[in-house]
Inverse folding.
């Protein structure tokens, strides 16, 4: 207890030197927590948006479907097998049929994906119900279609516009119809937006002569949670892709970003610890007579080492308090308002949305505090090892042996 | 009274003559319509004659292609070797930017060779829908079986006059399901059995492409299109013009021309 009191009095007595160290260390605290929280938030945000809008609880892909191989798409369709269809009947899964198509915005050729989804589905957040609403209202022969804001911007379309879409049916025969944009949906998920048009599943099945067929079937999130992974395997002709597989790209991106950020906060922490190390070295150098006096008064070398180490560690403790004083309001404010992202992020292929909302977990806070405390203590201890070799007589004379 | 009798007998004799003429004409009326009908061929017969006129066993064509785009027109020159309907080889001769580009079609496969990259690429899947050298023609259009009687049933929907030539208008409907264009409308020169115009329609009936034959020429006793304007109607622009500069029909083409090795030569 005496050591603690003495240590606290010493570092407070050191004045500005202590507070400079404390502020530098507190900055490291705040920046580490902020950066980690930012990437956690990014991960959560992208995952949540993509799962809600596209991945659901996992997807069954027709065996030939490969989103990275456009050549495979022509043949990637089949009648949904009975065991998956039973999930669809209970509204626990929804089929999507994907075909390649061509549009001619302002007379220019453009390849797109024409996707069919059940307007009555409740599996994904995609506003497919709009296709149903407008199906009853239409009377001009055009097909109700849904596009995203990015697609609308890139082809110059808006709500109410009509566009001619051309595709081939199952036999390879050209067909072309006018489609009416019934809504331009705003979504952070580019995979349901860029270069694609959504229409009703039954229409696309009818137009392409593919009744009852789909390219993929998306499971409802809850269904996947309730049943074991094994339940969703081994459907002939269809491959089950779980969320781990579907989110692999997002996880890889976040991991890469986290590694990049960790370099930054390692440098920051290193600089703060270097300041503490210097302070400790200087402190021992300047307080040789004090060390000698303490030894003469009967304090053991181990106790003196402990005193100096605790003094160093107190920097981290004070830094945590200072960081909490200005960091908590700041981080809470950022977590609530978010960080606006530049428009270029919208073309990166991930569902970042317009702003990032950092997510700070208790584990992150405690982990960061422990990391800084531990590293500060180690750094504070290192210079004090010289005290172990110090002779009291030399110390009293102001010499370091 | 006497006058009335004379009038009656005259009328009787006139009726008798009329009935004799009628009896004499009846056989003619029965015979003439089938005779007249036999002179108007059916749609399928017309299409078959067009096919016979158009297709030779092999041909070598030198042509230039004028692509009328939004930013102006550009002209490409090419030489093409064709054997039957499943083998063709095209080499672009000009402009310098495209010179040396080659295309090889064997059955339902198409390869292109670009000298700038020195690579041969198999065009397949969605790439077949891309425009060929920026023209209104897609690679798919190039791959199609050009024998219309194989693919369509024809019906005469009318007659008319196009570019000063009397012609039949035929409505073609697909015989089978795996066909690119569900229906076509063609204008056929009555005397020369050559197409003068063609409209290609989607399954929905929407007009997709048009082909206007602006000039025909007689080559080795066949009437062939010399200048064609091909237009993708969904696309902006004035279409692509194909002008045949030289044409040799039924020539012997060595086998090596239709090989992948010829692409890099």
């Amino acid at each position: 207890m005496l050591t603690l009191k003495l240590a606290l009095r010493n570092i407070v007595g050191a004045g500005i030197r202590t507070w400079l160290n404390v502020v530098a260390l507190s900055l490291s605290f705040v920046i580490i927590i902020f950066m980690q929280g930012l990437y956690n938030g990014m991960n959560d945000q992208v995952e949540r948006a993509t799962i809600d809008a596209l991945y659901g609880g996992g997807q069954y892909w027709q065996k030939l479907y490969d989103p990275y191989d456009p050549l495979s798409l022509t043949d990637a369709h089949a009648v949904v097998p009975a065991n998956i269809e039973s999930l669809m009947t209970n509204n626990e899964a929804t089929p999507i049929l994907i075909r390649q198509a061509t549009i001619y915005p302002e007379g220019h050729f453009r390849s797109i994906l024409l996707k069919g989804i059940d307007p009555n589905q409740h599996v994904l957040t995609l506003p497919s119900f709009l296709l149903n609403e407008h199906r009853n209202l239409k009377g001009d022969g055009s097909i109700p279609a849904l596009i995203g804001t990015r697609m609308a911007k890139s082809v110059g379309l808006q709500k109410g516009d009509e566009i001619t879409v051309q595709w081939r049916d199952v036999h390879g025969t050209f067909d072309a119809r006018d489609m009416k944009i019934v809504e331009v949906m705003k979504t952070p998920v580019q995979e349901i937006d860029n270069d694609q048009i959504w229409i009703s599943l039954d229409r696309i099945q009818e137009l392409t002569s593919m009744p009852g067929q789909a390219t993929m079937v998306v499971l409802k999130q809850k269904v996947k949670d309730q049943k074991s992974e094994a339940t969703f395997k081994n459907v002939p002709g269809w491959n089950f892709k779980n969320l781990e597989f579907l989110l692999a790209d997002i996880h890889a991106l976040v991991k890469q970003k986290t590694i990049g950020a960790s370099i930054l906060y390692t440098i920051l922490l290193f600089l703060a610890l270097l300041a503490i190390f210097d302070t400790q070295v200087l402190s021992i150098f300047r307080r040789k007579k004090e060390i000698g006096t303490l030894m003469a008064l009967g304090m053991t070398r181990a106790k003196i080492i402990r005193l100096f180490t605790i003094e160093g560690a107190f920097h981290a403790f004070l830094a945590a308090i200072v960081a909490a004083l200005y960091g908590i309001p700041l981080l809470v404010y950022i977590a609530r308002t978010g960080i606006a992202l530049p428009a270029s992020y919208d073309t990166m292929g991930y569902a970042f949305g317009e702003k990032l909302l950092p997510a700070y977990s208790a584990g992150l806070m405690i982990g960061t505090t422990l990391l800084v405390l531990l590293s500060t203590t180690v750094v504070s201890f290192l210079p004090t090892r010289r005290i172990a070799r110090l002779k009291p007589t030399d110390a009293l004379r102001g010499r370091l042996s | 009274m006497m006058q009335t009798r004379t009038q009656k007998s005259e009328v009787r004799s006139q009726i008798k003559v009329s009935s004799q003429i009628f009896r004499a004409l009846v056989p003619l009326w029965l015979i003439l319509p089938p005779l007249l009908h036999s002179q108007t061929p059916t749609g399928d017969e017309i299409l078959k004659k067009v096919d016979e006129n158009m297709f030779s066993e092999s041909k070598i064509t030198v042509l230039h292609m004028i692509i009328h785009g939004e930013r102006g027109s550009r002209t490409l020159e090419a030489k093409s070797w064709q054997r039957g309907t499943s083998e063709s080889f095209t080499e672009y001769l000009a402009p310098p930017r495209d010179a040396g580009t080659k295309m090889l079609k064997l059955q339902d496969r198409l390869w292109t060779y670009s000298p700038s990259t020195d690579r041969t690429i198999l065009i397949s899947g969605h790439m077949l829908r891309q425009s060929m050298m920026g023209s209104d023609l897609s690679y798919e259009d190039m791959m199609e079986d050009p024998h219309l009687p194989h693919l369509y049933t024809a019906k005469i929907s009318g007659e008319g006059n196009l570019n000063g030539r009397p012609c039949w208008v035929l409505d073609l409907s697909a015989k089978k399901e795996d066909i690119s264009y569900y229906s076509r409308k063609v204008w056929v020169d009555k005397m020369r059995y050559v197409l003068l115009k063609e409209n290609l329609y989607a399954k929905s009936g929407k007009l997709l492409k048009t082909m206007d034959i602006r000039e025909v020429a007689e080559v080795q006793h066949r009437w062939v299109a010399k200048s064609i304007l091909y237009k993708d109607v969904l696309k902006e622009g004035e279409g692509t013009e194909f002008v045949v500069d030289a044409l040799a029909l039924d020539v012997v083409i060595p086998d090596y021309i239709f090989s992948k090795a010829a692409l890099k030569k």
